[in-house]
């Protein structure tokens, strides 16, 4: 086909007519995120919608468009950037994505897209739907919590005689990808691993084939796909004096890992000690606020009434409130219980566990004990949050860059490798 | 159980797979469920993996994987049914059958389930029992029905026969759809017309699709005509799933002849030899009558070979029955369903006129469009143009339901105002009107002087109406109505694309928050923003229109929403219901 001129954000580019728009854009270094697109699937799946652009004035996914003479595409308008980000956030909110506990972490397209788009939290409420982990297939484990229904495996994983191994089952919000045990058993080892590889998340895991690479060596650990990866924490740095500031910290339903990470800046901590003093914090062991603080750092979400009380106190006593780590951001690992009714959790832990002795068991309840909430709440469901640092734990540089930027208006940008969910 | 007449056999050009839906129906009817064995047998027959067959079966909510009772009851849970007493009916059914909603009673006699709108909104509360309609229910009637079934009376004998409830026709014999007509009148006219002339007639008459998109019918037919591939198909979209709509049901019940003639006409105009009526599963009870009508057409030579003596004009027609999936009203989803697949809308890579059913050129039109096309040819385009207003010719069937004295079918001339229609149907203190169903437009009574027409593409001055007109009075809880819509879309999304599958669930959560009095202004802003994102990014019309009612309601009923917001704190704390949050734990208090 003839070479055509197409326009992206007002600039002309050339590509062979009929080239898929995603490929054509990529060839010119224009990044359009996508999670379901494969060049060889025709017609394209068009399921994830994360490549939505404005094409000749209409919202459409880039993957279902080919280059034609005079095609006008808007890719990087603020509205479209936000829309695409929202779609990926929606996937995080819809599934149960516990990155730190996932075999695919570091090699996950969804997580990678989160990094590329700079998603530090989902604007949508997490749905916490109870989903099956299917261990019955011979070679695979199907983790429905992580599936984004991109349809890649449905279309791509076939037996030698062309039968589908995966297929959508059910409908509406209950739609999931079902697996045919009989056909799965007929796949070659290579085909099974291919299924895991094309899955953009950790929904398809082949037994014995995960965790093969250490941190730092995984596919999406270090290098961004975008030519210019920018991740700025504030639109405009605040202007502030270089005076000494007071910080308070707390760990709610967390593991103190984020606190550990905070201390992980080596000798720089000596400089920091000059610049900040800690008020209420496990680092100082000050139990109650003795003054108003410039900044509050909160680790962990709210699992009980005491957490709520503490968090509200923090909100009241701190000018700026920053939530640190996955647990504080959206519940994190403690929120694994959110898909199970509280009663079942308590009874499993206190009444029916292997170590509980018959007749000797009770669910702890006392007026002095905090009351356990029906689910783990994200901090921003309880109070207004000013800034969010994702990660499990976030790296020390990430945390301190944010603190310095918020407190003293330092210019700030984050490297791709510093922004992680695990 | 149910009607025993099966839709006619496939055409010789259709692949075996197209049988799958009707085969699944057979299993459901005969065994009350699609068993593991049935899935395996079908998989072998069609050379598919079992999961693919299971995927198809589980897409349609009238197919059950677990036995659904010797008698299966579906209570309509649409918003209109809710206003008319759904709750009381559900309780009555639960009491009389011993089955809880969503399950089968311990003896396996009755299965009790919910289903969205069954096309009887003028006769609610209503239910389907073994796919026969039971209308205007009340607790006493339910008791009687169940007693009779327990006594062994055949369900079809005690079922209701829904009346047409035609409340108003255009004056001075200007009715289009209910004018006298004799079978074959239109088809015989084709002998003196070329296909081009037929299309030209539609063009002059400005006939536009009545499914709600109002695409010019002549253009669709003309485009399809230009593609050389053969055979071509004419598909009648009788998957009338938009809650509150029942006009197609009335047409198929009382004017099926004109619908069939419209399809034959389309076949003649585009050079198609085959037609399929895709009837929604909720209307399964209409199958015998429709089959009889089709048989009549064959008998008198109006279907089959050399129709009406026109040499080489062959047109075959058959019926296909859906199995409960609103999204199959989307034309490409409908085509997928016809092919024996999950009803997932296709991407707009090709339009059906080019690659439709079996990737062959296909015209898909709504029931009313075919009837209108036949009627247009019957009276001629110039006579047709005398109805309605300039630029929006003809008449429209509107299904009116909700808070009014005379719910039923209204044939109106385009150009009538909302106020006039409200007057006609005896609306009682109308406040909130949902036009064209949950995916359509919501209007406030302040807009009652807007005209109903096809004129305004963006529907800013005039209102386009696909057929559903639901009236709600001032006492109704708007948030409750919107929640009903959100829950409907959440279940009916095909599940393929993220913004629709997850988005509708998320909107529902947000509405629940409002309903619990925990929302603030920011929540309304988020609803607006999220709805806009869903509209822009969803894959098909379902997700693109699902947030419509909500977005418009937030804009048009700001005062109302203000009363539903929680008392704001200092802006730093969020409202949560702490009492509810610890309720589970409090159960362990010694």
Give an overview of the whole structure.
- The complex is a heterodimer of chains A (422) and B (590).
- Chain A is α/β, with parallel strands linked by helices and 422 residues long.
- Chain A has three domains: 3-76, Ubiquitin-like (UB roll) (Roll), CATH 3.10.20; 95-206, Alpha-Beta Plaits, CATH 3.30.70.20; 245-418, NADH:ubiquinone oxidoreductase-like, 20kDa subunit (Rossmann fold).
- Helices cover 27% and strands 18% of the residues of chain A.
- Chain A has helices at residues 21-27, 78-94, 109-116, 152-156, 181-186, 189-198, 257-262, 268-275, 305-317, 326-330, 342-351, 379-382, 396-408, and strands at 3-8, 11-16, 52-55, 58-61, 72-74, 133-134, 140-143, 166-169, 176-179, 204-206, 245-251, 276-278, 293-299, 302-304, 318-324, 372-377, 387-389.
- In chain A, a hairpin with a 2-residue loop joins strand 3 (52-55) and strand 4.
- The longest helix of chain A is centred in the first third of the chain and has 17 residues, at 78-94.
- The two termini of chain A are 46 Å apart.
- The model of chain A has no long low-confidence stretch (mean pLDDT 92).
- Chain B is globular, with a radius of gyration of 24 Å.
- Chain B is of the alpha/beta class.
- In chain B, helix 9 packs across helix 12 (256-270) and helix 19 (498-515) packs antiparallel against helix 20 (521-537).
- The model of chain B is unreliable at 1-7 (pLDDT under 50).
- The chains are: A alpha/beta (422), B alpha/beta (590).
What are the key terms here?
heterodimer, A: 422 residues, alpha/beta, Ubiquitin-like (UB roll), Alpha-Beta Plaits, Rossmann fold, 5-stranded mixed β-sheet, 5-stranded parallel β-sheet, 17 strands, globular, B: 590 residues, 6-stranded mixed β-sheet
């Amino acid at each position: 086909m003839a070479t055509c001129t197409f326009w992206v954000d007002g600039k002309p580019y050339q590509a062979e007519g009929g080239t898929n728009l995603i490929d054509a854009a990529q060839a010119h270094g224009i990044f359009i995120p996508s999670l379901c697109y494969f060049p060889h699937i025709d017609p394209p799946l068009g399921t994830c919608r994360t490549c939505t652009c404005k094409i000749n004035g209409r919202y459409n996914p880039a993957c279902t468009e080919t280059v034609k003479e005079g095609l006008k595409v808007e890719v990087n308008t603020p509205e479209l950037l936000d829309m695409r980000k929202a779609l990926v956030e929606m996937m995080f909110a819809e599934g149960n994505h516990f990155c730190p506990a996932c075999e695919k972490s570091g090699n996950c397209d969804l997580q990678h897209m989160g990094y590329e788009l700079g998603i530090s939290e989902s604007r949508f409420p997490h749905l916490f739907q109870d989903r099956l982990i299917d261990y019955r297939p011979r070679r695979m484990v199907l983790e429905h919590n992580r599936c984004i229904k991109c349809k890649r495996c449905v279309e791509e994983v076939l037996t030698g005689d062309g039968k589908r191994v995966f297929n959508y089952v059910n409908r509406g919000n209950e739609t999931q990808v079902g697996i045919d045990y009989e056909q799965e058993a007929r796949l070659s080892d290579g085909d099974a691993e291919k299924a895991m590889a094309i899955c953009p998340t950790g929904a398809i895991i082949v037994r014995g084939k995960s965790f093969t690479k250490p941190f730092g060596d995984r596919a999406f650990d270090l290098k961004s796909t975008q030519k210019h990866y920018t991740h700025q924490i504030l639109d405009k740095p605040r202007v502030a004096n270089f005076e000494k500031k007071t910080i308070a910290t707390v760990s709610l339903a967390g593991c103190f890992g984020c606190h550990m990470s905070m201390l992980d800046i080596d000798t720089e901590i000596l400089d920091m000690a000059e610049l900040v003093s800690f008020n209420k914090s496990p680092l100082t062991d000050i139990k109650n606020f003795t003054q108003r603080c410039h900044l509050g750092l909160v680790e962990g979400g709210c699992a009980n009434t005491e957490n709520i009380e503490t968090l509200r106190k923090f909100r009241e006593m701190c000018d700026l409130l920053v939530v640190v780590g996955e647990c504080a951001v959206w519940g994190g690992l403690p929120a694994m219980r959110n898909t199970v009714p509280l009663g079942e959790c308590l009874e499993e832990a206190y009444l029916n566990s292997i170590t509980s002795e018959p007749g000797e068991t009770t669910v702890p309840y006392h007026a002095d004990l905090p009351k356990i909430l029906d689910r783990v709440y994200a901090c921003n469901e309880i109070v207004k949050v000013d800034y969010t640092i994702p990660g499990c734990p976030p790296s020390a540089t990430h945390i301190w860059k944010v603190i310095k930027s918020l407190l003293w208006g330092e210019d700030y940008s984050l490297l791709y490798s510093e922004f992680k969910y695990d | 159980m149910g009607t025993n007449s099966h839709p006619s056999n496939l055409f010789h050009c259709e692949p075996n797979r197209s049988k799958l839906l009707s085969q699944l129906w057979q299993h459901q009817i005969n065994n009350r469920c699609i068993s593991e064995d049935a899935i395996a047998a079908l998989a072998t027959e069609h050379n598919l993996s079992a999961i693919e067959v299971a995927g198809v079966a589980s897409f349609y909510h009238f197919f059950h994987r677990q036995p659904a009772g010797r008698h299966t009851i579906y209570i309509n849970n649409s918003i209109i049914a809710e206003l008319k007493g759904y709750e009381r009916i559900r309780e009555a059914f639960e009491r009389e059958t011993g089955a809880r909603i969503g399950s089968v009673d311990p003896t396996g006699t009755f299965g009790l389930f919910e289903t969205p709108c069954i096309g009887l909104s003028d006769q609610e509360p209503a239910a389907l029992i073994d796919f026969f309609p039971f209308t205007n229910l009340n607790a006493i009637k339910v008791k009687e029905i169940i007693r009779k079934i327990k006594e062994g009376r055949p369900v079809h004998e005690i079922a209701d026969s829904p009346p047409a409830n035609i409340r108003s026709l255009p004056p001075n014999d200007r009715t289009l759809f209910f004018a006298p007509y004799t079978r074959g009148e239109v088809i015989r006219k084709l002998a003196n017309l070329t296909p081009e002339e037929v299309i030209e007639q539609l063009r002059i008459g400005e006939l536009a699709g009545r499914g709600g998109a109002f695409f010019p019918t002549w253009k669709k037919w003309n485009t399809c005509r230009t593609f050389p591939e053969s055979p071509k198909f004419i598909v009648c979209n009788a998957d009338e799933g938009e809650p509150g709509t029942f006009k197609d049901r009335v047409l198929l019940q009382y004017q099926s002849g004109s619908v069939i003639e419209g399809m034959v006409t389309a076949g003649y105009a585009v050079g198609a030899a085959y037609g399929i009526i895709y009837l929604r599963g909720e209307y399964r009870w209409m199958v015998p009558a429709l089959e009889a009508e089709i048989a009549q057409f064959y008998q008198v030579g109006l279907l089959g070979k050399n129709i009406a003596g026109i040499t080489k004009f062959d047109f075959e027609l058959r019926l296909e029955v859906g199995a409960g999936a609103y999204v199959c009203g989307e034309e490409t989803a409908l085509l997928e369903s016809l092919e024996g697949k999950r009803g997932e809308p296709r991407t707009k890579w090709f339009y059906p006129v080019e690659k439709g059913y079996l990737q062959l050129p296909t015209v898909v039109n709504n029931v009313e469009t075919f009837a209108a096309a036949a009627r247009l040819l019957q009276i001629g385009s110039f006579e047709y143009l005398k109805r309605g207003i300039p630029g929006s010719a003809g008449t429209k069937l509107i299904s009116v339901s909700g808070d009014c004295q005379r719910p039923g079918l209204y044939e109106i001339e385009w150009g009538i105002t909302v106020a006039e229609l409200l007057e006609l149907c005896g609306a009682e203190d109308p406040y909130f009107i949902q036009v064209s169903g949950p995916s359509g437009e919501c209007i406030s009574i302040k807009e009652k002087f807007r005209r109903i027409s096809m004129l305004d593409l963006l529907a800013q001055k005039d209102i386009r109406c696909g057929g559903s007109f639901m009236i709600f009075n001032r006492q109704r809880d708007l948030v409750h109505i919107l929640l009903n819509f959100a829950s409907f879309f959440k279940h009916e999304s095909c599940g393929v694309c993220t913004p629709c599958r997850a988005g509708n669930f998320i909107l529902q959560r947000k509405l629940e928050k409002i309903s619990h009095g925990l929302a603030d202004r920011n929540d309304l802003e988020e609803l607006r923003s999220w709805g806009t994102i869903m509209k822009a990014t969803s894959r098909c019309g379902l997700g693109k229109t699902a947030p419509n009612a909500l977005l418009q309601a937030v804009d048009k009923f700001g005062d109302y929403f203000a009363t539903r917001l929680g008392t704001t704190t200092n802006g730093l704390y969020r409202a949560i219901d702490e009492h509810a949050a610890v309720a589970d734990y409090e159960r362990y208090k010694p």
